[in-house]
Amino acid sequence: MAAFDAEPWADFSVGTAGAAAALAGLLFVAVSINLDVILAGAAAGRAGQALVLLVTPIFLALALLIPGQPGTALGIELIVIGVLAGAANLAEELGVAGTRVGRHLGDRRGRRRGGRTHAGDSWGCWSAT
Question: What is the pLDDT of residue 1?
Answer without folding.
Answer: 53
